[in-house]
UniProtKB/TrEMBL annotation:
It comes from the Bacteria. Pfam families: ABC2_membrane. GO terms for molecular function: ABC-type transporter activity. Keywords: Cell membrane, Membrane, Transmembrane, Transmembrane helix, Transport. Residues 21-244 form the ABC transmembrane type-2 domain. It is found in: Cell membrane; Membrane. Belongs to the ABC-2 integral membrane protein family. It is a multi-pass membrane protein. This is Transport permease protein. It comes from Mesobacillus zeae. InterPro entries: ABC2_TM (IPR013525), ABC2_TM_bact-type (IPR047817), ABC_2_transport (IPR000412), Nod_factor_ABC_transporter (IPR051784). The chain crosses the membrane at residues 24-43, 55-78, 108-131, 137-159, 171-199, 219-241. GO terms for cellular component: ATP-binding cassette (ABC) transporter complex.
Amino acid sequence: MSGLNILSLIIKEFIYFTNLNNRIYQFILFVQPLVLLTIIHFMSVMKGIEITGPYIIATAIVSMWSYVLYSSGSSLIWQKWNDSLNLLIAAPVSLFQIVLSKMLSNSLIAFISLTLTLFYAKIIFSLNIGIAHLGTFIFTAIVLLVSLSVVGMFLAVVFTTVQEVYSFQNFILTPVILLSGIFIPVESLPFTFRIISYLLPMTWAVESIYSGLNETNDVFLLAGVSLGSSFIYLFILFFGIRRMEKIMKQSGSLGVV
């Protein structure tokens, strides 16, 4: 798939997921960051606690994760419900390339939540975001987008086997927020949950962003672990999607999903 085709797909995905007909995505992208910041602001006023950079970034990551969960996680199942998955299978490019392009575009759209959160925090609430090194922050944000893309691809494949997709999405929304250490440090979780947490590429990406804000020395190590685990998942997904596509082409049906 050429770079021009990928850019065209990203633009079309952006228009589709941000137009006036998709109220839930508009809420997640544009309204939810403001709602979460407002809640944290009033909680800090009541408790007398200063809002620091990690709290602001945490609200952005929650919105980014919510968007990826609902958009990327539903991408293939929507195609199945609309009877257009057959067209994707018959396309001259591999299903893996198509899914990867959609996940990348969704992750880039999710970046809107991060940008708007920083804008709301600075302009509306006059908060000090505390980004010491802009280059490091941008790098860790890109690492987070990569991890979100991979998680989105994984969910897109898994959700094709789930009947009640939306119920399952609502079910895993909050647990992943807790397991990835967005608000609660992973070290404070029970041992079993910590194992699950460290298997998520998002966990390492979140810790990398927080380390960058706190100016610790392990920011690039954590980012490297996140990228490494993301590419391992991507490698597994490549063969999984390829096998799924092969079975569907051989059987001539969507029975595998």
